[in-house]
Write a structure and sequence with these properties.
By secondary structure, the protein is an alpha/beta fold. The protein contains 11 helices and 7 strands. Strands 5-4-1-6-7 form a 5-stranded parallel sheet, with helices on both faces. Strands 2-3 form a two-stranded antiparallel ribbon.
């Protein structure tokens, strides 16, 4: 992690979702995970050979639904990808969204927040309410409804910007898929553009820090976009969030900057 000094002026905190903000790989009380929901949906819509291949090759691996389907049906069946992608996404979400907010054995709601994230998010919101000019964005191959419902289940204010696979599909892009999804910088650039248009009073790109749990896809996107990157894991989560807070100038430093009117 290269964070060496706090950000100054307007800035954007951006993050992946699965395995970064929430631990969706941990089974829900009924045993469901993102991977198991994908497996069941693939098994139903494509067949047992495809679901077995999905499992044997490591599951979703931070890929978009289109990438997963394409890897299973092959480029020669590319015309089927959009149809299958929609069906698998619908079934997967039907399975997953019924689990959101269920209590795990220790009383924490599923999906479990990563260690340190709730404290970080509270500090970010407190700094924003005091006038600190920082935005927030989630950039994920997942889905808007799942992310939004998870924030609601944990009584958290949502991020300013959500750039999910649903958003990408809605743009109707004609560029090749690998130019749209991580590690290509498109989705991060989209988040910056939306935040500038909707929240910033400046046309300049905000200094951005991005956090994710995949060094290749998340780290590659950050590198391709030219922004700071923090790799997070279950083992280093609390320390990572504390270091990100320091880098962003949250807590006492951020509140003092806002109170003194130096945030512009």
């Amino acid at each position: 992690m290269r964070c060496t000094e706090p950000l100054r002026g307007k800035s954007l905190f951006a993050a992946d979702f699965d395995g970064t903000l929430f631990l969706t790989s941990e089974p829900s009380p009924d045993g469901t995970t993102v991977n198991s929901a994908y497996f069941d949906a693939i098994d139903y819509h494509i067949g047992t050979d495809a679901s077995a291949e999905f499992a044997e090759t490591g599951g979703h691996r931070h890929r978009s639904p289109a990438e997963i389907v394409l890897s299973l049906v092959g480029i020669e069946n590319a015309a089927r990808v959009a149809t299958l992608e929609g069906r698998i996404t619908t079934t997967k979400l039907e399975i997953l969204e019924g689990c959101i907010g269920q209590n795990l054995d220790d009383g924490v709601k599923w999906p479990r927040p990563m260690n340190g994230f709730l404290e970080f998010w509270a500090n970010l919101q407190q700094a924003r309410s005091s006038g600190y000019p920082i935005g927030s964005a989630i950039i994920s191959a997942g889905h808007t409804s799942f992310i939004s419902r998870t924030f609601q289940a944990h009584d958290l204010l949502p991020p300013d910007v959500l750039v999910t696979d649903d958003v990408r599909l809605g743009l109707g892009l004609t560029t090749p898929l690998d130019q749209q999804v991580k590690p290509a910088p498109f989705m991060l650039h989209q988040a910056q553009r939306v935040w500038i248009e909707q929240y910033s009073h400046s046309s300049s790109v905000p200094r951005t820090i991005y956090v994710g749990d995949d060094p290749v896809r998340d780290g590659g996107m950050a590198a391709n976009a030219g922004v700071e990157f923090v790799l997070i894991s279950q083992e280093n989560a609390s320390d990572a969030w504390a270091r990100i807070s320091t880098f962003l100038g949250l807590g006492t430093t951020a509140l003092n900057v806002a109170a003194n009117g130096h945030q512009k």
